[in-house]
């Protein structure tokens, strides 16, 4: 039986790769894609999600537009990383598939109420505004979610948008706090692991060598945003953050982590949006997340290349 998932996303080149990996994998049944404001504003993230579905030849997957601003704050975006459109790099046609009718939050709530309890996994790849809004509006859904597997946060790698905060959590820390205190089983793929999923030259060439529209588009996307990351981190390539979520669902054995307590800082000006991860078990706060710290990068990229080759 395929695992039923909803992908909540703000595409973003690495989001696009995460979506493509899910759509290429028979172990996952993508019930829908919900767009949120994050890397770029909502008008672009919902457009980009539809572009990615069309690239994969999967116009059957509904795309819903969700929240266009964080719960309590002004939207912070990341065009400096992802370009003006959020999908800069490849030249991809405007989407022809329509947006699905209705709001993303309503879709999340209705889907969780309709499907059997404990069968639907939420996969947030951006700020947690849509998911938190759904939990606030319909508290009954918390007990029906199988788990939330998200990309966000950092501990040893600290921050990428401020010295102490990772972008997805920083954009809407209040939403993150709601999700992390929801009691839903959480798997967190932070910068600590995603910074080890580096697209090196040979790995990018493997995408290009697939010789397909998807392989070429993915190679061009990673070419684009790696310029920023290489300069910033002095690394051999760009980290593919969001595909770690999909890869964990497919092959959790590629990853290692710990069950720990994670709290979200929402008050401090200095550390706003920090994921305070009790990695060493210093407090007696209850464990609320499987916090991933490492991965088999070669295994991750061979899975990604093999699956993208199916599209």
How would you portray this structure in words?
This protein has a single domain, classed as Inosine-uridine Nucleoside N-ribohydrolase, Chain A, CATH 3.90.245. It is built from twelve helices and twelve strands. It has helices at 13-23, 42-55, 79-82, 104-114, 129-137, 167-171, 173-180, 191-194, 201-208, 213-233, 243-250, 297-308, and strands at 3-9, 28-35, 63-65, 120-124, 145-151, 186-189, 198-199, 238-239, 255-260, 262-264, 275-277, 289-295. It has an eight-stranded mixed sheet, with helices on both faces. The chain has a two-stranded antiparallel ribbon with strand order 7-8. Strands 10-11 form a two-stranded antiparallel ribbon. The protein is globular, with a radius of gyration of 18 Å. The model has no long low-confidence stretch (mean pLDDT 94).
Major sheet attributes: 8 strands, mixed
* Secondary-structure element string: EHEHEHHEHEHHEHEHHEHEEEEH
Q: Which spans of ≥5 residues are poorly predicted at pLDDT below 50? A: none
**Fraction of residues in helix:** 25-40%
How many β-strand stretches? Answer: 12
Topology-level CATH name: Inosine-uridine Nucleoside N-ribohydrolase, Chain A
Shape verdict: globular
Separation of termini?
Answer: 21 Å
Radius of gyration: 18 Å
Instruction: Quickly count the domains.
Output: 1
Write the layout of secondary structure elements.
Layout: E1 3-9, H1 13-23, E2 28-35, H2 42-55, E3 63-65, H3 79-82, H4 104-114, E4 120-124, H5 129-137, E5 145-151, H6 167-171, H7 173-180, E6 186-189, H8 191-194, E7 198-199, H9 201-208, H10 213-233, E8 238-239, H11 243-250, E9 255-260, E10 262-264, E11 275-277, E12 289-295, H12 297-308
Parallel strand pairs: 1-2, 1-4, 2-3, 4-5, 5-6, 6-12
Antiparallel strand pairs: 7-8, 9-12, 10-11
């Amino acid at each position: 039986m395929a695992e039923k998932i909803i992908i909540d996303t703000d595409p973003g080149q690495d989001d696009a790769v995460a979506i493509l990996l899910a759509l290429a994998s028979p172990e996952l049944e993508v019930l829908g894609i919900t767009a949120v404001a994050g890397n770029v504003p909502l008008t672009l993230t919902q457009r980009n999600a539809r572009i990615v579905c069309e690239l994969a030849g999967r116009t059957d997957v509904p795309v819903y537009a969700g929240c266009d601003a964080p719960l309590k704050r002004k939207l912070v975006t990341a065009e400096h990383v992802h370009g003006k459109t959020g999908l800069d790099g490849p030249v991809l046609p405007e989407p022809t598939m329509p947006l699905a009718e209705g709001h993303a939050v309503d879709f999340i709530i209705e889907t969780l109420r309709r499907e059997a309890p404990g069968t639907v996994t939420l996969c947030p790849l951006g700020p947690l505004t849509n998911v938190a809004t759904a939990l606030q509006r319909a508290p009954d859904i918390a007990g029906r979610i199988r788990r939330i597997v998200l990309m966000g946060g950092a501990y040893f790698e600290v921050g990428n948008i401020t010295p102490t905060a990772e972008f997805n959590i920083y954009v809407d820390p209040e939403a993150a706090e709601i999700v992390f205190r929801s009691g839903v089983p959480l798997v967190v793929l932070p910068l600590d692991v995603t910074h080890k999923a580096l697209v090196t030259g040979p790995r990018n060439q493997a995408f290009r060598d697939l010789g397909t529209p998807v392989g070429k588009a993915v190679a061009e996307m990673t070419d684009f945003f790696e310029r920023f990351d290489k300069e910033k981190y002095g690394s051999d390539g760009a980290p593919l953050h969001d595909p770690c979520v999909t890869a964990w669902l497919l092959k959790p054995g590629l990853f290692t982590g710990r069950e720990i307590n994670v709290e979200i800082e929402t008050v401090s000006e200095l550390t706003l949006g920090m994921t305070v991860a009790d990695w060493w078990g210093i407090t007696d706060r209850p464990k609320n997340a499987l916090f991933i710290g490492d991965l088999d990068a070669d295994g991750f990229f061979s899975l990604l290349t093999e699956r993208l080759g199916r599209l």
